[in-house]
Amino acid sequence: MAKKKRKVQPPLVSKDALVKNWSNPHTKKLFKQIGIFSITSQVLLYLFSQFGAGYQLFSYMFLGAGRFDDLRNGIFEHRYYFSPQLLDIPGFASVASPPMVFVWQMYGYFVKSEYALWVSLILTYLLLVFAIWKATRNVYATVFFSTAHPVVFAFVRGNPDMWVLIATCIAGIALIRGKIWVVAVMFGLMSALKFPFLLFGLIFIVRKDFRNLALQAVVTIAAFLLPLTAKPWSIPDQINVFNVIVARYYEGYVIGDAGMLFNVSLFGLEKPLMYLLQGNSLLTPTQARDVAIAALTVQIISVVLLSVLLLGIPIYQRIKSRKTSVNQISSSTEIDLYLAFFLFLALLQCLLPQVAAEYRLAQLVVIVALLYSVKSRFLEDRLNLILLTLIFLPKHFLVISFPAGVANIATISSLISPVLLIFMAFRIQMYLSKNEFYSKLLDASRVLKKRSRTSS
């Protein structure tokens, strides 16, 4: 009996397509102009925040005692994570997934001094720079992307998202080269580190690649549970501790006001606005808590509305085009679209959670570098480049303070960044819809709808 041939996923783009020139000859010059403007503006905004009326971002990032705190605290605390004894410490609300604790443990083996901490972080950063260069193969582009504010912010915080950025680079390069199983493994590792990255599985759903979707799920579960086996406590007890700490984090950073500064999410826009609308009536923390709970309701409504509008774009575009057949797209356009969809999903993970710190934008920087590597037509649009540049710039030149009931502050960045991200989300959806990225899914849903009608 003849063996059934295994279906192999073809590469999304050929090697020849990877080295093709921009379709618009002025794009390369435009990139240089945008790059010079971005780096210059970033430096000036750092200085303005230091010596002007805004939040002293430069001191916080480069001069303050809290530099590298995310890694420093993780190295100090990793051995205590998931211990039932943490439940007896009411103020402990530092959320970390098991893979994140494992990363801190690996650093802890080598970091025995402040000098070793610097060396380990610099090596991690250089590994990220190498991954970006591997994607772009362009020194100028590598310098631009690796010095963008969100990337620098992740570095100076010593945040585990540095490894997310490296995994994103590896996943993007593998996607371009057709090694989809590598993409699934990277997505699985990222998802175990932070659950919102499960959203990247939609890429496999769009490709109807359920095997690699299952691989992502298996890697996520394994990477989440395996570090727990090295601890002396039972896995159910550790998961219970993890859930309690997440609830405490939610209480302090979402219901409370600890998560407002550097928040770029939609909720990070809505909660400060609702605080401001209360005027001077917020005199106690209880009153501020009530406003935060109301802001959660507003967020749910706005997320539903935003999702409907974003999902309606491809349907509207499909009806508008009224095409009877699906046009075949070239392989270079296909990878362009998949990377744009990758950017769209990463952008949603900045917008939709209640708290998304500014270093989450660094993943957008890396995906834009991947789009640059395939000479994406999405980046040839001047407005897209301007929007991305504004998203990546630090915008803390104005501090927003609140009445006595709110202990923490916000900056104008929390009001500007979500608006820019929403605008960019619509731009990406329009680009994908006009290039019929969703056409196969819409055709499949139409076929299923016809079958259900005929069967009934």
Summarize this structure briefly.
The chain has helices at 15-18, 27-51, 57-63, 69-77, 98-110, 114-136, 139-146, 149-157, 161-177, 180-193, 202-206, 210-229, 235-255, 266-277, 285-321, 331-351, 362-373, 382-392, 413-434, 439-455, and strands at 399-400, 410-411. The protein is mostly helical.
Rg over C-alpha atoms, rounded to the nearest angstrom: 23 Å
Give the number of DSSP strands: 2
Secondary-structure class: mainly alpha
Low-confidence stretches: 328-332
Measure the end-to-end span.
Answer: 40 Å
Strand order of the largest sheet: 1-2
Q: How many H/I helical runs?
A: 20
Helical residue percent band: 55-70%
Query: Mean of the pLDDT scores?
Result: 86
Structural shape:
globular
Percent of residues in beta strands? under 5%
Main sheet: strands, sense, barrel: 2 strands, antiparallel
Number of domains: 1
Query: Order of helices and strands, N to C?
Result: HHHHHHHHHHHHHHHHHHEEHH
